[in-house]
Amino acid sequence: MTDHNSTISIDSSVLSTSVPDPTGASEAGDLTPELIATDVWSDETVTQAGIPVYDVPLVSVGGGIGSFIMADFLRVAGMAPGQMRILTNLDVPWQTYEYLTKVSQIPRGERLRSDSQSMPDNAWGFPSYAFREAWNDKTIAPVWNVCTEPILNDYWTPKAGQVFESMEREAARIGYWEMISKGQVRMVRRRYGGGYFTILTPPQGTTSTKRVAFRSTYVHLAVGYPGVAFLPDLQAYRTKYQDSVRVVNSYEPHEHVYEELRRRPGLVLIRGNGIVASRVLQRLIDDRDRYGLQTQILHLFRTYRTESFGPSIFERRKARNGWIYQGFNWPKSSWGGGNKFKFEKLEGEARAAYYKRLAGTTTPGRKDWIEQLNRGRSEGWYRTYIGTVDSVEPGSAGTVVTRVVSKDGSVLEVPAHFIVDATGLEANIREHRLFADLLDHSGAGLNPLGRLDVERHFEIRGVANQPGTMYAMGTMTLGGYFAGVDTFLGLQYAALRVADDLARRGFVNKIGPLRSTSQWWKWARHKELPR
Ligand SMILES: Cc1cc2nc3c(=O)[nH]c(=O)nc-3n(C[C@H](O)[C@H](O)[C@H](O)COP(=O)(O)OP(=O)(O)OC[C@H]3O[C@@H](n4cnc5c(N)ncnc54)[C@H](O)[C@@H]3O)c2cc1C
Predict the structure, then answer these.
(1) 18 near 55, Cβ under 8 Å?
(2) DSSP β-bridge partners for residue 384
(3) Three-class SS of residue 79?
(4) DSSP bridge partners of 182
(5) What is the dihedral of CA 185, 190, 194, 195, to 10 degrees?
(6) CA distance linking residue 155 with residue 329, whole number of Å
(7) 496 and 471 in contact (C-beta within 8 Å)?
């Protein structure tokens, strides 16, 4: 792995124009009650608080895959690395993503959900991951797969490891490691005279003050998910009985479940019917097959579909055995077809209603997963239940009992040695301190789905501070004019729209056909971009 740790602390020498620590820096260089209470800050109030101020034209908050993609597009558009600071608590942009995929049973060697052309390291989508894997492994199989999908084959998707390794390579090419400053961003506030102050709390001991401020014309927010969500009944059980061993969330480390099941036979109850539930089931069944285990799998559905459904032939959803099958988390046309154009035109309630029509928990209908579950059903070790949960209580012999209420009101008690909650990630915008602050102090508002309201080009509505403005992308903007925001391709689309807007404002060059072609050649030859 690249040695980038040396560049992650605040280093004013890499900033385009740095302002030295203000004279007479106060005791701690911390936020004052006056700053916290004031919506628009003057330079004087910040320096009076003893907070060192660094100037940089653009700040990106997050440092995950969204910030990485944004940096990549802007570097392709001709931006020098010193023009952008990425403020992050991560060591590498794929860190949170790798953590979440790994615990939810997609280690580096397993395949992701998104397709061959969704490539965070490659703005052009060519050559795709399938071509690159075919080239590296000297096999035509991946190319044959993408040419015949989804009719003859399931969608071809890359291995997680391929995505991380190619991002690492691109990070070195664009000088990404020189652009990051480590720490936790506390807030972004508007500045008298234009632009913003972004307040960073650097890791303890790396700076002489508690906070540092970045004064910039533009701010880009890509902070991902606020945190892991738990089903309320499972959370209540965990809190009451202090048991986070038998009741686990698929987005937290739960390897002990699989290890315990290898030691002795047991019952596992899975809740959820999306791709993460599919992955957990695959892991349980792979282990069963590989080690000759006797694991009994119980699967609880709240809604159980037995037949395909939909308002019209074009919106028909394939469903069977409780699952709704769909290759990606939105219909494919949401990224570049009819649904994309439709979302762009809809406003307010009409947009919310269209989201509702297309949304829902789905999983790809992969042949190997279907085969495993069919086998489990016929051999009796995979059983499904339908209903809502009334309570979860400790049972006998180390079990946890779920009381399931079915539609007709009857109650069934389902004991299991482990319960795995595979129902999703938290997405309440106010749970993220940065967004709560933005809504309360900077004029940002909510979209029809209750998340951050952004324009078609991902500028946050209501926060512009001429000549500056702020952009946001990722899951916190779901509900806007583009549905696939929380995907690699969606992040790339958003980054392109932001790059175009910044080009219109004169910050970077527009990525026209000539620049795009010449930059692609550089990418293909892995030519380092000028520092
Ligand atoms: C299990 C799983 C599988 C997925 N699979 C796919 C897939 O196959 N294909 C696909 O296209 N998409 C997939 N996605 C969706 C999406 O592409 C990823 O979640 C992607 O990582 C989103 O990028 P991001 O930049 O928005 O968030 P992240 O990559 O999480 O980066 C944001 C980071 O910002 C940091 N941060 C937050 N607040 C602050 C703060 N105040 N100060 C400093 N730093 C902060 C956090 O460390 C956070 O992780 C998947 C998501 C999950 C959870």
Answers:
(1) yes
(2) 299
(3) coil
(4) 88
(5) 20
(6) 13
(7) no
The DSSP annotation for 284-323 comes to HHHHHHHHT---EEEEEESS---S-B-SSGGG-BEEETTE
Question: 234 exposed, middle or buried (CB, 10 Å; 0-12, 13-18, 19+)?
Answer: buried
Q: Which amino acid type is present at position 74?
A: L
Ligand 1 pocket: which of 96, 200, 362, 482 to mutate (most atoms <8 Å of CB)? Answer: 96
The position carrying tokens 């602050």 is 437
Cα separation, 246 vs 266, in Å, equals 12
DSSP codes joined into one string, 114-157: S-TT--TT-TT--S-HHHHHHHHHT-SHHHHHHHHTTTTSPPP-
Identify the bridge partners of residue 180 per DSSP, sorted by sequence position: 86
The protein residue whose alpha carbon is closest to atom 31 in ligand 1 is 64
Other beta carbons within 10 angstroms of residue 252's beta carbon come to: 14
**Residue from 487, 492, 493 to probe ligand 1 pocket by mutation (most atoms less than 8 Å from CB):** 487
In sign, the C-alpha dihedral spanning 148, 149, 152, 153 is positive
194 C-beta neighbours (distance < 10 Å), count: 13
**What is the CB < 6 Å shell around ligand 1?**
61-66, 87-90, 96-97, 100-101, 104, 112-114, 118, 184-185, 222-224, 425, 434, 474, 486-488, 491
Is the full-model pTM beyond 0.85? yes
Rg, C-alpha atoms of the chain: 25
Lookup result for tokens 């089903």: 231
Tokens (6 digits) for 514: 């000539």
Burial pattern 153-174, b for ≥16 Cβ within 10 A else e, equals ebbbbbbbebbbebbbebbebb
Q: Are 267 and 415 in contact (CB under 8 A)?
A: yes
Give the length of the chain: 531
From CA 51, how far away is CA 44, in angstroms rounded? 10
List the chain pLDDT tens, one digit each, 531 residues.
Answer: 333 332 223 333 333 333 334 333 445 799 999 999 999 999 999 999 999 999 999 999 999 999 999 999 999 999 999 999 999 999 999 999 999 999 999 999 999 999 999 999 999 999 999 999 999 999 999 999 999 999 899 999 999 999 999 999 999 999 999 999 999 999 999 999 999 999 999 999 898 899 999 999 999 999 999 888 889 999 999 999 999 999 999 999 999 999 999 999 999 999 999 999 999 999 999 999 999 999 999 999 999 999 999 888 888 889 999 999 999 999 999 999 999 999 999 999 999 999 999 998 999 999 999 999 999 999 999 999 999 999 999 999 999 999 999 999 999 999 999 999 999 877 689 999 999 999 999 999 999 999 999 999 999 999 999 999 999 999 999 999 999 999 999 999 999 999 999 999 999 999 999 999 999 999 999 999 999
Taking the C-alpha atoms of residue 472 and residue 46, their distance in angstroms, rounded to an integer, is 25
| Exposed e or buried b per residue across 38-50, where buried means at least 16 C-beta atoms within 10 angstroms of its C-beta | eeebebebbbebb
Secondary structure percentages of the chain, helix, strand, coil, to 5 = 35, 20, 40
Q: Are 222 and 490 in contact (CB under 8 A)?
A: no
